[in-house]
Amino acid sequence: MVNFTENPRHYTAEGLSALCEGLSQRFGDRFSTAQSLRDQHASTLTWLPAQAPDGVVFPLDSGEVASVVALCAERGVPVIPYGTGTGLEGHVNAPSGGISIDMSRMNAIVAVHAEDLDAVVQPGVTRKQLNDYLRDQGLFFPIDPGADASLGGMAATRASGTNAVRYGTMKDNVLSLKAVLASGEIVTTASRAKKSSAGYDLTRLMVGSEGTLGVITELTVRLHGIPEAISAGICPFASEQAACDTVIATIQSGLAVARIELLDALMVRAANNYSQLDLPETPMLFVEFHGSEAGVAEQAERFGEIAAEFGGGPFSWATKPEDRTRLWTARHNAYWAVGALRPGARSVATDVCVPLSRLAECVAETRRDIDRTGLVAPIVGHVGDGNFHVQPLIDMTDAGEVAACEGFLERLVQRALAMEGTCTGEHGVGQGKRKYLVAEHGEAALGMMIAIKNALDPRGIMNPGKIFMP
Amino acid sequence: MVNFTENPRHYTAEGLSALCEGLSQRFGDRFSTAQSLRDQHASTLTWLPAQAPDGVVFPLDSGEVASVVALCAERGVPVIPYGTGTGLEGHVNAPSGGISIDMSRMNAIVAVHAEDLDAVVQPGVTRKQLNDYLRDQGLFFPIDPGADASLGGMAATRASGTNAVRYGTMKDNVLSLKAVLASGEIVTTASRAKKSSAGYDLTRLMVGSEGTLGVITELTVRLHGIPEAISAGICPFASEQAACDTVIATIQSGLAVARIELLDALMVRAANNYSQLDLPETPMLFVEFHGSEAGVAEQAERFGEIAAEFGGGPFSWATKPEDRTRLWTARHNAYWAVGALRPGARSVATDVCVPLSRLAECVAETRRDIDRTGLVAPIVGHVGDGNFHVQPLIDMTDAGEVAACEGFLERLVQRALAMEGTCTGEHGVGQGKRKYLVAEHGEAALGMMIAIKNALDPRGIMNPGKIFMP
Fold first, then answer.
1. Residue ranges of the FAD-binding PCMH-type domain (chains A, B) (predicted)?
2. Contact flag A198-B118 (C-beta cutoff 8 Å)
3. B109-225 domain in CATH 3.40.640.10?
C-alpha cells in the first residue's frame, strides 16, 4: 500500500480553533467540522489512503473564496479545493491538514456567448451540467473524463478524455480563468480574445497546477458547434497490436477522427457485463467522426479500409443516436465496469502517455508485464493521443499482490518515460505520481516549477503535498 | 515619437571589457563588438528607436548558449536572444546594454518524427526552411507570420498568422522546448507525448515570454499532414462590416475554414501595386479550405452561400496552385506592400484582437478613427480569430502626424480592451505595448507575472526592458 509520510502541520490547535471560529462567523452553516463531512471530502477513487481536512467550507463566489484563503493564510492553514472528488491521484487529500473549499454551490453558468463560442462558468459546474444547458443552442463542450467532474477540477488537473484527439485537452479549451492566489488576491488570467501575445500565459500556468498556485473561481471555456453529422462505430481486432497500428495509420492519414478508443478483451468483457452490451470479447476500437453527412460517411469508409489492412473488422456502425449514446456511456463507465469484475478489490486506476509511434510497443510490453505479474488489469485508452489507462484490481489484504502491483506501476511509468512519454497523460500528479517528476522532467525543470511555486505561495498553504514531494 | 528611458546598465565598463575578453576567448570570431554588427542586431521593423547591444555572439548549440548566459550572469550583463530581427515591438533592442545571442547558426533540423507528426529543431530554423524540408514527406508546419521568422523567435513572441483559425498559434504547436535559464541551467519543458498532466506547463510559460525567462535553444513542434485538397479564393464585399459579418457567420456555422483574412480597400490597392495583382479595390476576404476533394468543394460552396447572404461575392477560386501561392504571397508581403504606398514614411505595424462578436464593431470604429485622424493606415487581419492589424504610414519628421498616430494607437488599444480583447493578438509586448499590461491584466495578474520573472531571473539579466516597465 502506498504510504505517504503525513506532512507536518504548520499551525497550532489554537490557530485552527480561532480560524474555525472565524469561518463559522463568516459562513454560518456553510462551514462545518463534522467528521462525516470531513471524511467525505477526502474520499478517493483509488488506493491512496484518505487524509481528511480539518473543516469544509461552501463558498458562493470569488470574493468568499478570497476571504477563506485570507483567513487561512493568516493562520498558516492550508486550503484544498474540492470539486466532485473524482480525482484519481489523491488531489483532495489533506496531508498537512487544512480547510477543504467545496465548490459545489459555485455551480452557476454565468454567461454563454454563442457568437464567440465561449461560456463563463463557476468552477463547480460539471461537464454534463454544461452540456445539458448548451444542447438547445447547438453547442457543446468536448472535454469528457469518465466521471461527471467539475470544470474547476478538470482545469486544475489538465483533464482530457475521449474527444481530446480532435478538440484538445483542458489546456486548449480554457480561454481564461479567475483564481484566488495565496495572497488572497483575485487574478484574471486573460481576456476573452481567442488569442493574445500580451505577457506570460497565466491561463496555461494555472491549468494543471492542481490547486498548488491558486483556487480557480471562474472559467471561460471554449465551446464548439454540435456537428451536423456524427457517426460512431466499433471495430474488433485480433490483437492490441493490430488495433494500435490502425490508430497510428488513421492519425497519419490525416483523418480528423473525433474519438478513437482502445478497449482490450478484458475491458470489453467488463463493459459487456456492466453495461449490458454483447460485443465480441476481443481487442476493439470505438471510433467517432464529426462533420457533414457526406464528410463523416467518407471518413468512416476510409477508416474501414485502414482497419482492414491490419486485419480488423468488420467495422459496424451505431447509426441510431441511442446506440451511440449507449456505446459512449459504456466507455465512460469503464472505471466502474472494471471495478465490478472483482467485487471487494480496490481499483488502482493509472495512466501514461507516449508518442504515437511507440504506442503499440508500449501497450504490448504492458500487456506482457500484466500477464507475467499475474494481475487482473484491463487496458483502455485514448489511443489517438498515445494515452492509455491500466486499472489493476487489487486485494488490499494480500500484501504480495499489493507489492506486485506497486512493482508493475513503477515499471509502467519507467517504460513510458523510456519511450519519451509522460508519467500521466491526464490524471495529474497529485500524491501518487510525485516521485516520478524528477525522472520525467530532470532537476532543472522541476527546480523551475518549485521556484514558481515558492514565489507565488511562499508559506506553502495552497494544496500542499501535491505535485511536489514534501 | 515613442521614447523609452534607457534603463541603467548594472555593470561597469571593466566588467563588460572582462566579459568581452572571456567571450572572445571562448568563441573566437563568433563573438564580435563591431559597431555595424551591433547596430544591425537592434534594427527594428517599426518606429521604436534602435538600441544596440554591446556585442553579438553566434553560438552553435545549447551548451554554448549556456556558457554565454553563465559568463554574462557572472558580470550582471543582460542577454538578448536574436532570431531574424523581424519582431515588431522592439524585442531585440538592448535598452540596458548586453550581449545579443544570434541564433542564425543554430539552424539544424535535428529530427523529423513523421509517425508522431513532430519535428525537433534548433531555434534559428525559419518557418520556410522547415516547410521546404518537410514538403517531400507530405507534412507542413502551419504557423506563418508575414516574415520568414525563426521558430525560436516565433515561440518567444507566441506568434501566429493566417492558419491560426484552424491550426492554433505557437502555444498550440510547440510540444516541448529546451531553454537556458538565468542560472545557466538547461531545462527541457516536456516530453514528446502529445499530452501530459505531469506538473506545471513550462512549455506554455516559455512560449510568449519573449526571452525574459530564458533563451530557447531547441523546440519540438507539431506537424500536420499536407491536406489532400486545398482550395483558396477571394470574395469582395461592399463594406468591411459585411466582410466581418460573413466571417462571424462562417465560424459559427462550424465550417472548418483554414484561413480567412480581411483586407480593406487600401490594403487591396497596396497588394495590387506591390504584388502585381488586379483585384477590385474594395474590402475583401481571402479564404482557404483544407480537406478531401469532396470536403473542400462542399465547404467552399457553403461559404459562398454565407457570403451572398451579406451581399458579398462573387466568390472566385484560385484553382491552380500557382495562383494560390500568388495570393498568399501577396498576403504575407502585406507589411512591405503597405510600406510602398508612401515611400519614405515609417510603418507603424500594430495589432489587437477582440472576441469575434465585437470584430465588426471594432473594425468599423477603427476605420472611422483612422479617417477622422487623417492617417494613411490600411487594415488587414486574421479575422477568423478576431485579430486585425493596422499599419499607419507616418512621416517621422512631422511632429503633428507622429502625435496623431500615437493618439490613434492609444485609442485602438483602449477600444480593444473595452471590448474584452487584448492589446496584442500576435506581435507580443516587447517595448511598445508594455504600458498597456496593467489596463489589460490588472495589478494582481501583472504582479503574478512579475513574481515569476523575479523568481526565475532575480538579477534581471534576461532581455530586460521587455514586457515589464523598468
1. 49-226
2. no
3. no
